[in-house]
## 1
Amino acid sequence: MDKNVLKKKNKPASPCLSLGSFEATIGENMLNDAKISTRDVNVSYGDKQAIYDASLDIGRNQVIALIGPSGCGKSTFLRCLNRMNDTIAICKISGKLLLDGEDIYAKKMDPVLLRARVGMVFQKPNPFPKSIYDNVAYGPRIHGLARNNAELDEIVITSLEKSGLFEEVKDRLNAPGTSLSGGQQQRLCIARTIAVSPEVILMDEPASALDPIATAIIEELIDELRQNYTIVIVTHSMQQAARVSQRTAYFHMGKIVEVGETSRIFTNPCHKMTENYITGKFG
Amino acid sequence: MNQDTPLGGHISKRFDNELEDIRHQVLAMGGLIETQVANGLRGLFESDSDIARRVVQDDDKVNRMELDIDDQCLKILARRRPAASDLRLVVAIIKTINDLERIGDQAEKLGRNQLELVDDDAGSLHFMKLEHLGELVSKMLNKALDSFARMDVDEALKTIALDEKINAEFDGMMRQLITHMMEDPRTIRNVLRVSWCARALERIGDHSKNICEHVVFLVQGKDVRHIGLKAQVEMASE
């Protein structure tokens, strides 16, 4: 054996070659075939900057988890992806956000149509004060996706089936959506999102208000939905991120610190800040 | 300890204490194992059946320590759900104590072989041939435990390299013993016992090497098992 090889200084693992800088995102934040690409995205609310130079690719038919402490900008970033921040007057966004190469913030991009393509599920289940059926039928109706009632029925049933709720509610489709349990309401909201055939589903803490069983059902559902949709999930539960996602991005104080395969991030993160956050240490 | 993998600093101080506590217990188990191996060898070289008997008896202590640390690791996994370096520490400890327990079994074998041979003067002369191999193995075990205590990858890799020396020494030893047996078949019964002890020592080297590989995994998160020394060194320094 060459004696000198033992003397070599230990260098970081290959995904961590750019380790050391907090300014630049480390890990694998770029992909070859991205569904959504963001480059140098800066977001501010009035004088307060919420996101700094976020460059991240979101892979097709993958679940990516956005993790980080409260106020780190992960929800703000998520809301940029379907222009939910448009409604906030003081919110300013710069940089590039592309959905299949199309500029999300282009003038010709209709935000209503964009949100049909990039649907969203919120932290608290928020069914409309309507029947279960009408909750799911709402989107297809306003977008004119069904030519007749039979087609609408078909969309509603398929969406409820895909969200794993149909068997539980098939006998009471006319009951109010709010009469369902929390977990069922969240799946109803997922069915409502799916009903307009989105390409991407954004989920902001979709299971944080649910018990472990309802959470497990939602997580199982997320895994199934991945076959047909691209999913971005914001979660405070490290275990949930580890269970449901293929890639994980760690946000800290408005910056994307590290991105990588979930299995690597949770066993061998490169950045000290990622390590500290997921092991529950002082940052 | 390597600065990249401090155990402390968790928001939960109790978790810090649990991890530190479990690490100390592994080191204590390592200390007991070193004593067992040293006494096993002393029993052989000094034909001291009292020491040999104690080694056999004390293997039970080693086994109980393994069970105890295993139990605590299980509790940490269930209650703390460790991630990243914490997860690697717990996994490395579970594996390391398994290797330590097996080293303990090999030390026990040294003791048992001594006890079997106590009435045979010629046998203890043969055991002296194990002296050099015993020294090498004790040194390797010591260095492996040291690299674990300090979480030192460089030291671990240097220690892994020692295994080749031990294997070469073992092969030479076996050739020598076979020659003995061929020259004088009346010695076969005793020489076989010596060869079993040599085998036990060689196995201790293998387990020490495993411990060093766990250290690399613990510190760097890289699995360097089954790839050969050269690739191990390259991978660890990537």
## 2
Amino acid sequence: MLIAITVIFAILPFAGDNPLSKAGLQQTMAVAFLFGALALTYDLLFGFTGLLSFGHALYFASGMYVTAILINDFNVHFLLAILCAILFTSLLAGLTGGAALRTTGITFAMVTLAFGQAGHVFIARDFGGFTNGDDGLPVNADRLPDFFIGVVNTKYLYLLALGILVFIYFAAWWITESSAGRVFAALRDNEQRVSVLGLNPNRFKLLSFVLSAAMAALIGAAMLFVSGSGSPRYATADITIALLLMVILGGPVTRWGAVLGGIIYSVLSTRLTVLSDGTAFDSLPNFIGGPLTEPAFTLGLIFIFIVMFAPGGISGAYYRARFKYLNKGK
Amino acid sequence: MSTFLLILITGIGLGALYFLVASGLSLIYGLMGVLNFAHGAFLTIGAFTGLWISTKVFPNPTTLTFILSMLAGGVMAGLFALLMEQLVITRLYNRHIDQALVTVGVSLVVTALLGGWFGFDAQFLPTPLWFMNAVTIGDAIIPVDRFIYIAVAAILLIAMLSILRFTRIGLIIRAGVENRAMVTALGINVRLAFSTVFFIGGFAAGVGGVLISVFSYGVSPLMGGSWLIYGFIVVVVGGMGSIAGSAIAAMLIGITNQFANYYFTGLGDFVVVIILATVLLTKPSGLLGKVSH
């Protein structure tokens, strides 16, 4: 079924007149696919391994900026630039993750938050003159292949994003079903047991941390091409918190739940903004209409509701309903 | 020498503001194991209440009305903290990750709500005129607002330490930080201690919010988020659950931040993260940390 949906999404932009043949929606969906993939890499940490990190955006932004800097300042071929960005980000994640993993639980969350914040400051203040600070860093279009440039070619960016999503999905599948993936899940469920069995918990946590960071770097590079430029806002804790919301919304540990959560969240926050720029809420008094124009208000309320009353999110609800259905006859 | 003194006192003033944010975070985490992401929202609510008192209720700010706006900001933030604790946190008893997640949601909603009502642009909070003065110590000219932050934080530090040291509820809180299970097993009502800690933490953050609006020349719904991160860093460096640890770490971080910003233009935030990493690598529980859950 997932394959069928993917094929439909891949064909739609080329199949005559439909909403997805417009460049605007293609752009929105491309961003949504990448956030879906990014949410999945976060799920690998949070859902599968049980690590609550608040610094995941750092590795996303690192992939994005290293790619852009290598292409712009050093005239590196874009594929090689992406590869270098992934390697650099893995190294960065190894160092910061190694330090942060000296702590556990909530302290770990705070430490990763601090590292993420340092990364954001580094990019926004433009140390060393590489990142162009708050203005963002446009990637030099001349050095990208032609089919990634221009509004008519948005469909190829759309396909790129979809391809990255499929790749990350299979990578995450392979990782979580591998023997290392079993250890990740065991760490989440009972860390003491893992150490009793003679495995080093921190080594596996670090592996999970670095793997998800490396995948985030790849997605960051793709986001660079889709949005045309890097921006410090991709490095903020807001992005990581958004990822957390996506995973909770779609439901952790099911893979497709995180992806779906990411896509829904991304589309919703774009569309709710469009809605609020219009006149939809003008008839309401300001003390109700004002907050409704902020996507964060609605999304925050949904989030609180899911955490309190519907843990497992969309995919959790699906599996509960399915379980009920399958057991109906008994 | 005069620059040195100016930076030192500015750093202590900044540390005083960090302390106001961090003390509540530290107590709440120490007692209940809740990582409170809504603490930034408490701060913002305090700041907006202060703004309301200083502009709408008393349009001509005097020293007395400023004190009133600080108190009102503190009480309002404290009440909101209490409300959140009663409505949300207590329902997720012992689900620590979910409690942290739900506070993330609360902070998003509060930020969006305040943004929708008042806009995201910073609004100026009027202060009594003498706040703009400066005092001369030796040959250093130091703006007087620094001393206000330090004085307010010192008063709250003494008040909190006294509550913890000399009252019955303070005794329960201290015992709860050390071993909550044992306190509950002895049949003591810890719930009341939870609510007290949330109110005190919210109060300090609310007062801090009003002062931070003076320090950063404006009130905005987004102010909570950036100060919250420093609050977290101070708490981790100082040790979870220790008010004295928070005070020491806040001073350490405020002062180094200012010196690093002056001598290595703008590197202050980095130095803060380096301090954090160093403390974690040498003493993961923080300077005065006691909690192990």
